[in-house]
Design brief:
Layout lengths: L1 H8 L11 H5 L3 H14 L5 H26 L8 H185 L3 H29 L3 H10 L8 H9 L1 H23 L13 H7 L8 H6 L2 H12 L9 H12 L1 H4 L5 H26 L2 E4 L3 E4 L1 H49 L12 H50 L3 H8 L8 H14 L5 H9 L15 H20 L10 H29 L7 H17 L2 H10 L2 H9 L5 H18 L5 H20 L6 H37 L2 H15 L5 H4 L1 H8 L4 H23 L10 H7 L18 H14 L18 H28 L3 H17 L5 H8 L5 H14 L5 H20 L3 H12 L5 H32 L4
Antiparallel strand pairs: 1-2
Helix pairs in contact: 7-9, 8-13, 9-16, 10-16, 13-15, 15-16, 16-17, 20-21, 20-28, 21-29, 22-28, 23-25, 23-26, 23-28, 26-27, 26-28, 27-28, 29-41, 34-39, 34-41, 35-36, 35-38, 35-39, 35-41, 36-37, 37-38, 39-40, 39-41, 40-41
Length: 1131
Amino acid sequence: MEEDRGEAIVLDISPEINNTPAVMMRVPRRIRERLLSDCSNKKTVSSVQDIEDKLLHAHLRRQQFYHNVSRKARAKPRSPSRSSDEELGQRIEARLLAAEQKRLEILAKAQMRLAKLDELRQAAKTSVEIRSERERVKLGTQVESRVQKAEANRMKILKASHQKRACAKERTSQSMMRRMARESKYKERVRASINQKRVAAEKKRLGLLEAEKKKARARVQQVRHVANSVSNQREIERSKMRDKLEDKLQRAKRYRSEFLRQRRRQRDSISLYCDMMQEDADLLSRKLSRCWRCFVRQKRTTLDLAKAYDGLKINESLPFEQLAMLLESLNTLKTVKSLLDRLEIRLEASKNVTTVSQPSILDNIDHLLKRVATPRRKATPSTLRSRKGKKVSSVRNVAGTSVKMSRYPVRVVLSAFMILGHPDAVFNGQGDQEAALNNAAKGFVRELKLLINVIQEGPVQVSGGESKHRTLRSQLDLFDKAWCSFLNSFVIWKVKDARLLEDDLVRAACQLELSMIQKCKLTPEGVDTMLTHDKKAIQMQVTQDQELLTEKVRHLSGVAGVERMESALLETRTKYFQAKEDGSPMANQLAHFFSPSPASSPVQSVSSSSSRSKDSIGVEGSNRVNRSLLKDDTPPSSGPSRVSNGTVDEVSNQNELMVNEFLHDGNLNFPGGSTVKDEEDNLKRRIKETMERAFWDNVMESMKLEKPDYSCISNLMKEVSDELCQMVPDSWKVEITETIDLDILSQLLNSGTLDIDYLGKMLEFALATLRKLSAPANDRENESTHRDLLKELHRLCEAEDESGNFRAVAIVKGIRFILEQIQELKREIGIGRIAIMKPFLQGPAGFDYLTKAFEKRYGPPTQAYESLPVTRRWISTLLSSKEEWEEHNNTLSALNVVERSSMGISLKTGGSFLSPVNTTSKSTVMDTAGQLSECKGERVDLAVRLGLLKLVNQVAGLTPEVLPETFQLNLFRVRDIQAEIQNIIVVTTSLLIWRQMLAKSESETESMAKKLLELLDGKEGAGLTEIIETTMSEEDGEKKKMMRGLLGKSLGEGNTVYERVTSCIYKAARGALLAGNGENGKRMVETEMKKVGGGGGLKERVLETARALGVVACVSVRVHGPWLTQLMPQH
């Protein structure tokens, strides 16, 4: 029983491990995770020693665990018997021994298994490393081969895409060119049709507008006529009523006086007389109040009229349309007329109330009012028939009686606001009369506004030079004075404007007459039996238009104007038929003479044309050139206006030089910007300036004598007047001759008196005219300069001088300044005309002009063999042109082959669209980018280019005797090109020797080349000494001597270095000259200049020189092509 209880109490935990293969091969999850984590953390494989250490440590922990478990499970001894304890101990010991033996076996098996696993692991690791290395090598080889294949494929794809893109671009560009051509043609057709429709619409619009204007004028005239008749009728009725009232008042006065006499005789009592007077006073006061109320109700007071005028808000600051509508309103005209009539009555009343100390009367301005009064139009028969008999009789009665003119015409008064607010819309010009009218209008409007203010608010204080108290009477006087001044200026301006309008109408009638004669082909007798229906309609329409113009002239100037118009028409017909009978070209030029110009009559037009022909032979050369370029071929009218053959040849030469300069580079320096010609011009300029100073010094000295000679002032003012009349339009000449009246000036100066004020006004007028003629950009500068001049002249005139010489000197100084300003203005006008002609002369017109001038000088091309001997000898020396052209082509082909081989496979397209563009433009020598055209191998073009290159490569300087006739205009230009080529030769040779002696780098060579070029360009007489001083330092004395000897020997003819340098530079210039200054020309220049060490600066010089030479050659081919073709050998 105790054994059973002991077995039940003691926990027997067997440490034996099942040694089955399934249990041995299974690794616990926890241990496997720890091993994997340790392996991943250490990143190395565990060794056998590590595994044994871990197993031992696990065994110790397991024994400790067993011990703890067995200790907890052991029961308390309950005093067992001794025998059971011994058996139990033996049994436990036997089990422990068995367990220990089992553990040792398991440990041995585990060690053996771990050793085998380690061997397997090492073998697997080695095999994996070998296999990974082998795969890495294999993958590297595959990747490298794939990269190479991908690169090759990418290059093929890129090349194919480039080719496709180039082809697409080429096709796109060609299609765009074709599309642009089609669109440009379509736009031109559309633009032409639009212009035609626009012109037709404009004609139709002008016709409708003219018809509407005529209808509106007719309606306005009709309304005005009715208004005038109504106002006249009312005036007659008022006058009759006034007469009746006056008769009644006179009778009432007589009755009253008679009644008073009777009452005085009957009643002698004073009291009765006083009562009677009181009753009469009451009666009169009642009558007076009744009349005043009637007056206020019917005619209104002055204050009410002023308030009504103020309510119109008439102001010069209003816009033009609004102010014009306001001034044309009937309400405005009625209100303003009422106010002005009341002011006239008040003014007359104030003048009638005179005092003994200060009597006053009104200024008589009837002669001015007649000028501004609207003349009565002649009534038409239809108008007369439409009127009633009573109305006609009343109008006749009014015409028979004289109606008093209003002192203040309402429309003239209102025009002051328009003049002051919108002078540009009112005036046709800006003369002294317009300025005076503007100032008068300003003063009149100011006084009118102040008068309205005085009427509304009473007397006011006006602060001017001194404080003044303005009452209604004083302000009325000032208002009337301002009105008289404004009316005077207005009449003067209106008379001038009417005169100009009359000239325009007469000119229009003459144009109609001349056009009718030319269209209908009338005879001097005025009849033609072969007139068609259209010609008869034209003649009828011209007759009607002339009648309308005659009516307008009669309305403006009366019978005298109609007579002047008829005489002008007769003179036009006479001159036309006389010129047609004589066969002179004047019959075709009369239309030009009668062309519309501002304020010039037909007679003035003819005179102006003759004056223009006289001006064409003036002193200024530029003016002669401008007029001849503008083809002012007006025949001179008299002998003195004709020019000599020498002057004509000089003008022709100057014209040719100018056109030639335009065709080459557009500069205005003559000829070709040469130094020799500039020196001649400077010498002439200095001589001219010296002579002018001497002349003015002589004039000044004559003014400082005791008895000064004032005749020179008259001559100088005559010169000023003549110069101004030559430059200004015909409409200004009358004002100039009126202001600078030479007859009055001569009389004043002959009398020995020097009127400073009169001469000062002349000078101010001349300065103002110059400011009008000058450019708007110079207005401020001219105003300041003229202001300073006037201040200086004023200071000289105010200086204390008993003899009065300072005043004469001041006048002469002012005249000198004006004449200098006139010459400067002439120069600016000449430059402006040249600038206008420049675009035309740079095109085909310039080439045609030079061709005609050359033919005029040397004859037609058929006579070239006799008339051009120097050119013939020069062309005969150009037999090797064909060989040089072949050599040039071979060189260019070799350069292209080298370039293609260096560039690899070239992308070929279907063609180039640039080639037709370069060949179609023949109007100018150079294209828009400044590129010289390439030589195509044409005989004349090739011969001229190579022959000109050989001319400029000669050592001896070119002279007019050696230079062909076709290059005479470009003598100085060709000389400059020759000098430039010689400079390039000298610089290239100097750089070769300098580099050979000092062995400098490329950059230093470039800088030295720039220094040498600047030396030769800046200093004309530069020689070997200056070149050596520039290239060598001061310490190298021996090297300087050596370089001097080498350079002098190398620059001599026949030297090897010289021949080599000149040959390379000749070939470089030939390449650029024949291939153009594009890419081909640059490559040829670079190839040849490399042989002699030429840097970038020298290459650019060669290209520029070749470009200038090519321009000369191309212009000569265009101009002298027919003559050169005749001189070229036929074989």
